[in-house]
Amino acid sequence: MRIFDGFGQRISLAMAGKKSPWGGGSGNDGGGGDEPTGAQGGDKPKGPRNPWLPPGGNSEDGRRAPNIEDIFKSRGPEGPRRSGGGGPGGPNFRFPQRPGGKSWFPLAVAGIVIVGLLATSVHLVGPQQEGVVKTLGNYTRNMEPGLNFSLPFPIETVDIEDVEGVRSVRIPGNDNQAKLILTGDQNLVDLSYIVRWNIKDLANYKFRVVDPIETVNEAAEAGMRAAVAETELDETFSGQGRAAIELDVRERMQRTLDGYQAGVRVLGVEIEKADPPAQVVDAFRDVQVAEQNADAARNQARGYAQQVLAQAEGEAEAFDKVYAQYRLAPQVTRQRLYYETMERVLSQTDKTIVETNNVTPYLPLPEIRQRAQRSAPATVVTAPEGQ
């Protein structure tokens, strides 16, 4: 504690200008206080140089007692002082001067301001873009594609938007989220769809509605619920039913957004998924499989019926043709029909019995056929008498 008390006493003496905390006292000092043990007679006390004193001056080797003004004194007749000398980044750095002796600083500031004004006054609008100009915060005009000019900021501000680019919104935004919609036959269907749109009127898009994207989302959901509420569940799963729903939703959305003057053009609606709720999806799939099997059986029956009907119609047409020939020559037609019938019947049997008067001859047709194949004789079957 004595050490700290002594150090504090030395600091207080230095602040009062009576004694240097580094050693020797001033020339006016009456020798009071602690003197170095090496001081003899009229010799002046020696000690380290006071770092707070500037070089030169009237002090004796810079070892006089410092004042508080010397410690905090930062400028002299020639500007700020630094023990290490001035440099480009030091206290002695000065801004370059013009030939007339004036500073370049005002001109540099004026140049920066002019460049900034020009940068906020010239606007290049792309071929698919449009801009809206606001004067003191109020809408004044549109900017067409090309090079356009406006008053500098903050008098006029310009917002540039892409009006031709196609924007899309997905409902629901999360794939794992279910969007259950009630159908016309009181069933629930899980739908996810995409709405594609762009900007039709940039001024209305910017200033008529607070949040245009949220407005498009709300209009799409309202239109989809209204369209599905007029459609049965089976139609929402079929391709033709989906196309009708998509067209209906697009028309409903456009009417709603035009009523809000939202400045939005609806390009199309695409249904990505139409499934039953997850809780009943297995049972629903079983029902679908059964319906598909029933449809397949019905289609097969219709095909068989059409085949039989076509065959019957062909036979009826052939009979009509034969009947027409029969009316022209009944005897010849009857004989020809008999031969054709016998040929068709006998060609499918191996044994034939021909009844004649008091005799029942047996015709070994297989042997006759084999013999005929070897010798190729002509076989003639005569009709019974009276035929």
UniProtKB/TrEMBL annotation:
The family database entries (SUPFAM superfamilies) matched by this protein are listed as:
Band 7/SPFH domain (SSF117892)
Q: Where is the composition biased (Gly residues)?
A: 22-41
Record's keyword annotation contains Coiled coil:
yes
The alphabetized UniProt keywords are: Coiled coil, Hydrolase, Membrane, Protease, Transmembrane, Transmembrane helix
- How is it placed in the membrane, per its record? Single-pass membrane protein
Q: Where are the transmembrane segments?
A: 104-126
Q: Which ranges form a coiled coil?
A: 280-307
Question: What is one GO cellular-component annotation here?
Answer: membrane
Q: Which InterPro entries match?
A: Band7/mec-2_domain, Band_7, Band_7/SPFH_dom_sf, HflK
Looking at the Swiss-Prot or TrEMBL record, what is one Pfam family this protein matches? Band_7
The molecular function terms in GO held by this entry are: peptidase activity
What ranges does the record give for the region Disordered, renumbered to this chain?
A: 15-98
**An example Gene Ontology biological process:** proteolysis
Localization recorded for this chain is: Membrane
List all Basic and acidic residues biased stretches: 60-81
Asked if the keyword Protease belongs to this entry, the reply reads: yes
Its main localization is membrane
Q: Return the similarity comment.
A: Belongs to the band 7/mec-2 family. HflK subfamily.
PANTHER family in alphabetical order: MODULATOR OF FTSH PROTEASE HFLK, STOMATIN-LIKE PROTEIN 2, MITOCHONDRIAL
Q: What's the protein name?
A: Protease modulator HflK
Question: What is the species of this protein?
Answer: Qipengyuania flava
